[in-house]
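Memo to structure team: turn this sequence into C-alpha cells by end of day. - J.P.
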Amino acid sequence: MDANFLAARFEEQRAHLHGVAYRILGTGAEADDAVQEAWLRLSRSDADEIDNLGGWLTTVVARVCLNMLQSRKTRREEPLDDHEPAELVTGPEHEAVLGDSIGLALLVVLDTLTPAERLAFVLHDMFAVPFDEIAPIVGKTSAAARQLASRARRRVQGARAGADRDRQREVVEAFLAASRGGDFGALLTLLDPEVVLRVDAAAIATGAIGALGADAVAQTFSGRAQAARLAFIDGRAGAVWSVGGTPRVVFEFTVSNGRIVAIDLLADTDTLDQLELEIRSRQN
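Reply from structure team:
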C-alpha cells in the first residue's frame, strides 16, 4: 500500500483512535502517545493484509493503552469464573470536549477499576466493540471479558447513584436551612422556576395547599419547616415532620440539574407505612 495513501487512511481514523485512548487512559498526552504508537506499528506492518483497518487500529490502540495502564500501577486482578453469568482532532480544545462528554466524575470512577475492567467497559459500553474482539486483548475468554465489563458497569453505576444521592441531599439540606431561616432569595435559587408543590388529601386536611412556580413555593416555605428533619425516603433525600417520634408528613423532593422541580407532601398513613424512612438528626 502506498505510504501516502496509508497515512491518509490513518488520519481518517485519528479522531476515533484518540477518543478511544482518551477514555481508556484519561489524559490527552497519554492518548496522543498511544495513537502515535499505533501509527508506528501500522507503518511497520503489511497493511495490504489488513481487511478492516479501523478495527485493526482500534485493537492496537486498546492493547497499547492496556500496557500503559498496567505500567502505571500494578493492581490485583480478581479471579474470574469464565462460566459465571454476567449481568477528532487532538489538542486542548478537543480534550476539553472529550472531558465534558465523559465527565470528570466518571474519569475518577474509571481510575478505580483494574486495567482490564476499564478497557472492557470502555470498548464495549462506549464504542460497542464485541466481547469476542475484546477477549484476546485482555487475554480472557469472551465470557470473562463480559464479566469484566459487567463488574465495571456496576461500579460506575453505583458511583453515579452515590453522587446523585449526595447532590440531592445537599440541595435538600440547603432548602431546609433556607426555609427555617426565612431566606427567600436562597429558596428561589434552589427552586426551578416551574417547580410544583403537590399535597395529598391527608395533607390538605391539615391545612397544606399546593403551589406552582418558584415564587409561590418559596413563599409557602419561607420561615417554616422548623420541625422538619432531613430523611432518606426509599433511598432519596427528603424530609419528615414527626410528632412524638411518629412520622406525620413526608416531604419528597425531585431534584434535576441541582434544582428542585417538585415537592410532594404526603400525610396519608397507609402511604407513609409503605415508605422506607431513614430520619437524620437535625444539624442546624
